[in-house]
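A further point concerns the way the authors explain their paired sequence and structure data. Showing the layout once, in full, would remove most of the difficulty. For illustration, here is how one protein appears when written out as sequence plus structure tokens:
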Amino acid sequence: MTLPPLPPAEFGPFLAALFQKAGMKCSETDGLRLASLTHGHPYYTQKLCFFLIALARALASEETTSVFAADFMARHDLGSTGGIQGALKKLTRLDIIERLPDGQWKVTDPVFKRWLVHQAR
């Protein structure tokens, strides 16, 4: 069964609530942007959100300068480089992760980092 695209105006607040329930900062505006990026397509929206959360968890457990390294991607089951690129942009814009001057990627909030590591176990 294939679901039709969902109206972004309704899907956006739903996504924001899901992220907030998972302990991640996401406004309704950001939820709307996520839904708009995928044109409300449920499968692609789920895939995009998976990459966002998976990358945040990976960086919480292991800060790295090479998120596109095959061994890092495999260790954290991150999938494609395209998904990682989109997740990096979104998580950086949401101030969930940051890139340090030495090129290292890390989760910005140390308390959130501990929570993500705990959730990944």
In short: The first helix runs from residue 8 to 21.
